[in-house]
Structure formats: C-alpha cells, structure tokens
Amino acid sequence: MAYRIDKSLISDQNSSLLVALQDDYDALSNKLARTGIDIDVITRKAAEFSIAIPSWGTGTGGTRFARFPGEGEPRNIFEKLEDCAVINDLSQCTPSVSPHFPWDKVDDFTELKQRSDSLGLVWDSINSNTFQDQPGQQHSYKYGSLSNTSEAAREQAVAHNIECIGWGKALGSKTLTVWVGDGSNHPGQQHFQSAFERYLASMKKIYAALPSDWEMHIEHKMFEPAFYSTIIQDWGSNILAAMELGEQCKSLVDLGHHAPNANIEMIVSRLIQFKKLGGFHFNDSKYGDDDLDSGSLHPYQQFLIFNELVDAEYRKQAEFNPNYMLDQSHNVTDPIESLMNSAASVQRSYVSALIVNREALGEYQMNNDALMASNTLKEAFTIDVSPILAMARHSKGGAIDPIATYRKSNYRATVGAVRPSSGGNGSGIV
Ligand code: PSV
Ligand code: MN
User: Fold this and answer.
1) Binding site membership of 104 for ligand 1 (Cβ less than 6 Å)
2) Which residues contact residue 241 at a Cβ distance below 8 angstroms, ignoring those fewer than 6 apart?
3) pTM for the full model?
4) Cα separation, 171 vs 204, whole angstroms
5) Mean pLDDT within 56-75
6) pLDDT for 12 beyond 70
7) Distance 231 CA to ligand 2 centre (A)
8) Which atom, in ligand 1's list, is nearest to the CA of 430?
9) Is 280 a pocket residue for ligand 1 (Cβ < 6 Å)?
10) Atom 5 of ligand 1 has which residue's CA nearest to it?
11) CB atoms within 10 A of CB 406
12) Which residue's alpha carbon is at the smallest distance from atom 2 of ligand 1?
C-alpha cells in the first residue's frame, strides 16, 4: 500500500491559510480588473496547466565527484511513483511521470500501469538510454550509440529504442525522447558528416517503428559527456535531424543544454514557427548543464520563454502542443520539495505570461517603441501572481502551501523507515 498524504491534513492546513489567501486574491483581482483581466479566467488556465515529473528526479542526484544519498530515497519505479503521487496531491499540476529505460524497467508493465492508474498518474514521454552500458550488454557505447562506427552497436541502440516504444505503448505514453551522448573528445577523432549520417540512418529505423499517433523528440546538448563535439550539439543540428526524419519528429529544449547567455526564448520562437517544438526539460543553470531547480536563478528567462509559448497560444499557432517536463538533479534538497517548488515556478512563468498585455505589446513593437515594449513584459513579470497559483491548487484539492503541508505530513521520515538507504554514494549524474 502506498503511503499518501491524508486529504484531511491538506484541508486542515488550507483552512488556516484560506482567509489571508482570499484577501490577497481579491486585491490582485481588483488590480488585474483595472487592465481588463478577469482573474478567474487566469486561475482556470493555471489549474489546467501541467508539467511532468522525471522519474529519476525523485532520487538524490550527484556530480561526477560524489553523491550524497538522501533519506528514504525511492528504490524502484513503484516507489518513485509514490513520491510523484505526493507531489501531485499537493501541487495539483504534475499528473504525469516521464520514465527512463532501462532504469525503470519492470517485468510486468501491466502491474506498473495498474499502479500508476491507482495513484491517479499517467505516463509522459519515454526516455531511452544509450549513454551508458548496461550489465551484460553485448556492444559498448564507449564510442557512441546511434552514430557508433560499429554497425552492431548501432543496431543494439536502435533495438533498445524500439523496445522503449513497446514499453511506452503498454503504459499509454505517446512520445519517445531520444538524447544520446555520442560525440568526440579530440579534434579529428570523428568525421563530423559521416557520424551525423550514421546517426540519421539509425534514427530513421526508430522513426519507422513509431506508431502513427506518437511523436519522437530529439534533445540537443552542447557538451558532456563528449567535450569536443556532440552529435546533436544545438538546436540547428536538432531541427535539421527532425526535418530529415519527418512530421512526427520534433525538437526538445532542455534549458541547461545551451551555451551560456544563449537566447533560448528565440530558439523556442523559431521551433514554434516551423512546427518543430516538441517539448521542454525545465531546469536552471549558471555554468553548464547544472540541473538546478527551475527558475531558481533565471526566472526572467523562464518567463520570456513562456511569453513565446503564450504568444503561440494567443495566435492559435497550428500544431502547437509542446510537452512540459522537469529535468533536474537535486543534490542538497529533498527532491519532493524541489520538484514541487519547480513545478510551481514553471506554472508561475506561464501565468505571468498570460497577463502580458499582448495588444499593447504588438503596437509598441510595430511602432518601434522599445522602452514601452520592454516595460510591458516587465510589468507582467513583476506582478506577484502567487495568489492565483495558490487558488488554482486549492480549487483542485491541493495545498495552498505545498512545502509547509509536506513538512507537516512527515512523509520523508515515514518512508525513510521502510526504505533503507541505498548506501550508494558513488559518483554519477542521474
Ligand atoms: C542529459 O543531460 C539529460 O538532460 C537527458 O534528458 C537525459 O535523459 C537526462 O539528462 C538524464 O540523464
Ligand atoms: Mn534533459
């Protein structure tokens, strides 16, 4: 039996916060009404927003130097699901989980599906893993997977991705996300064009196995584990591959996978324009693929990305339906707390973008009024939309203050008693 947070604890905690929340909500309602915005419309949209939890994010992360395991870490996908259910019960915006195979492989996928059903969770994009060797694996990925010079290694990587599609079908998923670590560490080590040709040929085989109602998402990353060149190093190679593969193939943007200071919101706009935006892995970073909590460092960048996304919604852009997902590594926090905070941070960026005065912005842009265009965005960004987020959670039975309610529940210590520490303190980015 999964340990769930009692609904009565959530409602008790909420009742002590509701009067103050209603005051703040009414004040914000009056403020927004002055600019013609109906707060209830925004709150309804906030309540409809959802973002997937990465199964691997529920465990404590690490770096290549060390990992410091946390108390009560989930030991398998069933326990990861329990933690995801807690996150969703409190946050009410994370009803889906994105699994990573073979990390989350089980013998009986029917049982796994029944468990997720019983917890009220659904499955988001399936992630394949050909960036590390698995025990007993015949061909090594040391020199790459889908672009390996060895045909046998490439075939093995293709077969794994096709197997992932099969597991995804059993779980009711409709997307396969492919990220590979293929690349090189030395100038001259790899023939760029031949390696890309091999990658594309392998991807075509996976694409051919994709059900007609599925999408395949390609994730780019500038470097790491390869430190000189990476096969899909940026959105350019990504969209080229996605265009080559076909309509069901789109690009996925992980916020930590770009050169510092890259204009990610502009990349997003380009992908939207060419109907190639598949989805996101949200996280934040200062130096590289830091996998810090979403919005913890660059909330304005996250808002500007949502400004593009809401603009596409506003313009009713065709074929626009990106998947939102977190992809973070929690090294010093309780992963449940970080994931709840991060989901709310992304939801906040969405809500802030919803209150941008788009007619005014469009006019300022057409009149080249740079200052007022910029101020229009800043005005929306600086309005504190917290009461909208809290009210959206409350309206769905979630917690007005998810972190406080979670701490009050004593969940971590409770599961800690039945989940002995993995003791795994070795290195490893997860
Ligand atoms: C690679 O750094 C990445 O962002 C990909 O999404 C992987 O699937 C994930 O992290 C987990 O290693
Ligand atoms: Mn990612």
Assistant:
1) no
2) 199, 200, 203, 218, 232, 249
3) 0.97
4) 24
5) 93
6) yes
7) 15
8) 12
9) no
10) 179
11) 25
12) 289
